[in-house]
Amino acid sequence: MSQIGPVLVDGVIYSAWLFIAAVGLTLVYGVMKILNVTHGSFYALGAYAGASLTGAWLAKGYPPMLSYAVLLGGAILVTLVFAPAIERGLLRFMYAKDEVVILLVTYALFLILEDTIKLIWGVNPYFVAEPYALLGSFEVGGLKYPTYNLILVGLALALSAGLAWVLHSTKVGKLLAAVIHDPEMSRALGVNVDRFYLVTFTLGCLLAALGGSFTAPTVSVVPGLGVDVIVLSFAVVVIGGLGSLPGAALGAVIVGLVRSVSVHYLPQVELFVIYSVMALVLAFRPRGLFGLAEPRKI
Amino acid sequence: MRPDRTPATLVAILAALALGGLVLPQWLLFILTIACAQGLVVLGLSLLLRAGLVSFGQALFYCIGAYTAGALSRAFGVSDLLAQMLAGTAAAAAVAFVLGFLLARYRGIFFGLLSLALSMIFYGLIVKSETLGSTDGFNLAKATLLGVRPDEAWVRYAVLLAAACLTLLAALLTHRFLRTPLGRLGPAIKDNEIRVEYMGASVRYAIHVNYVIAAALAGAGGALAATTVGHIDPEMAYWTTSGEFVFIAILAGSGSVIAPFLGALIFGAIHTTAYDLSPNTWQMSMGVALLAAIVFLPDGLWSLFTRLRAAGAGPK
Q: Which of A275, A280, A297 to mutate to test the interface with B (most CBs of B within 10 A)?
């Protein structure tokens, strides 16, 4: 029996999802050297906003095809409410501190946001399957796949192309490279570094929220949704190399395929295999497969 | 030189627990025992923190200790607390000895991430193994002490007393270790590794030793927690458990071997009170407490004592 087709399709879909969920993490780390634990909170916030707004949209009887725009809008809305406030109100006072201390600050924020979500949306699960079922399905190797999954793949490709274009072919991208390389010198040359940090953090969180809101139609949205995503995104970006965009894509593809193969052939080892890959990469190439070597400082 | 008052303080705390335990309510005895268990793990974590290393996977050894105790209880019917804690310690130390060769090469965020990955591997293993109860875990038999099964009304007190004695022993040994030349290297490694190497000491060896001791303490804590709660599950190896330990370590500070236990007790107190007052927002209270600790007490609660002492001893 040939399973290659379904294994590949599953792998690609899962990779696309992983990339959307994890790329914001690598962006924020790459620019600000912050390993952002609240990334998972924004994933959950996006999922809740997407599910509740789309649910309300459909209940009002508005055109269901536009529910995809509502998913997008929901992610943008929650991000704009929380991310700038967190960066301006708290994180910017921490930049002088150690990387690990900032990580703990975001961990504390993650605990706070986790309960904020419960306060806003309650503890009952949300379901909105309509956007998922709306597009019908396609068939590979005798297995049916909802066409919705292709939206995820398209979104992942569009995001990676868009980010690559901004970083490599625009003035903003060049300035960002300068900020990454030497924030103090950039500041001295008149670059508004604070604004870069604010925008980068918000964008990174928005990507997490997008991942959440576009996943919402495929799952039941329950408290604690983001907890798994945090460590899974860590695995993805660490495998590729913290702060590397192509690395995040490679990490997503590796984890996606590895997971898909193990789910099809040996489901017991799924988590074991994913984190083993992470540990192996750290053991042999600690800066990840695409990570840049850091100049040694005495 | 100031006389070393830590051993005397520890013994005094043990005596206070032994006497106080006779009159304290059962639930408080439980909280105190759990504080011992978590304090042991955090004590280990603070050894690593002194050397500038933050482990986001200390739950690995906590869980190894717990499952070793569980396996003893389930497969061999050994429910003796002492045997379980010794076995948990040994198992965790053995695993750490092997992993230490790898981890001793890592610093900063990479040390944290690799230890996180290792604990998640273990989580992935036990969550899917049906003989170990997969996600549900399994229950442990009631604890016995040196072959004696304490009366139902006294079992909490007996476990607390035994746990406190063993914890005291572990804390004293760690305290001794910190006064050896090897133990004193920790803060030096944090300050400047290259200078430590120039002094003729091996940074990697020192970190390896600290790592194994930290794991042994976490294993003992895990076994104690397993017997006290009477139930173990894979959550004990999950990253949120490691996060809690780091939380307590930051809250406590690393000025003394007593600090982790104080931190664990205060963590338990915040946890219990916040959960009682509002079950849906207790995490928020914890998060605020952690933020407050990072912002206002960057050296932890223990720095309050050292500050007081410094103020008392300073020039008039």
A: A275
